[in-house]
Amino acid sequence: MRLKLLWVGKTQESWVRTGIEEYAGRVRRYAPLEILEAREEKGAQAATMRERECERLAKLIPKGGKLVLLDERGEQMSSPELGSFLSKNRDQGTQDLVFAIGGAYGFTDSFRAQAFKTISLSRMTLTHQMVRVFLLEQIYRGFTIINGEPYHHE
């Protein structure tokens, strides 16, 4: 199973880039990982920005890829549940599991309709920049859980 993380815009803060690099390296011990950035839209109305950004994200999804959206209104999972989700997809032969983080105005309804699953990392509002690190850390944690490694404590 290959993992793809899609997000809108460049990572601004150096400390966030450092966190992404750290956890991306850890995740790559368990599965191939590709991180792709869609260009952020600027200077238009929110609906137009959302539409253009989602069009760009859609072009990055491989044919047959299972799309998982990160959205505050999505299903909340515990870390062990995310581990089970990763394991189930791996064991069922999912070729590309694609996680998408939208821009400041989120996703369009038509992009949402393409999603296999929508999950939330928190009911709190998190910056789109920090969500990148949090998602990677949770994917890493999920892999350590399913491999019985001592990273996660109950």
TrEMBL record:
<keyword id="KW-0808">Transferase</keyword>
<keyword id="KW-0963">Cytoplasm</keyword>
<keyword id="KW-0489">Methyltransferase</keyword>
<feature type="binding site">
    <location>
        <begin position="121"/>
        <end position="126"/>
    </location>
    <ligand>
        <name>S-adenosyl-L-methionine</name>
    </ligand>
</feature>
<keyword id="KW-0698">rRNA processing</keyword>
<dbReference type="InterPro" id="IPR029028">
    <property type="entry name" value="Alpha/beta_knot_MTases"/>
</dbReference>
<dbReference type="Pfam" id="PF02590">
    <property type="entry name" value="SPOUT_MTase"/>
</dbReference>
<comment type="subunit">
    <text>Homodimer.</text>
</comment>
<feature type="binding site">
    <location>
        <position position="70"/>
    </location>
    <ligand>
        <name>S-adenosyl-L-methionine</name>
    </ligand>
</feature>
<dbReference type="InterPro" id="IPR003742">
    <property type="entry name" value="RlmH-like"/>
</dbReference>
<feature type="binding site">
    <location>
        <position position="102"/>
    </location>
    <ligand>
        <name>S-adenosyl-L-methionine</name>
    </ligand>
</feature>
<comment type="similarity">
    <text>Belongs to the RNA methyltransferase RlmH family.</text>
</comment>
<protein>
    <recommendedName>
        <fullName>Ribosomal RNA large subunit methyltransferase H</fullName>
        <ecNumber>2.1.1.177</ecNumber>
    </recommendedName>
</protein>
<keyword id="KW-0949">S-adenosyl-L-methionine</keyword>
<dbReference type="InterPro" id="IPR029026">
    <property type="entry name" value="tRNA_m1G_MTases_N"/>
</dbReference>
<comment type="function">
    <text>Specifically methylates the pseudouridine at position 1915 (m3Psi1915) in 23S rRNA.</text>
</comment>
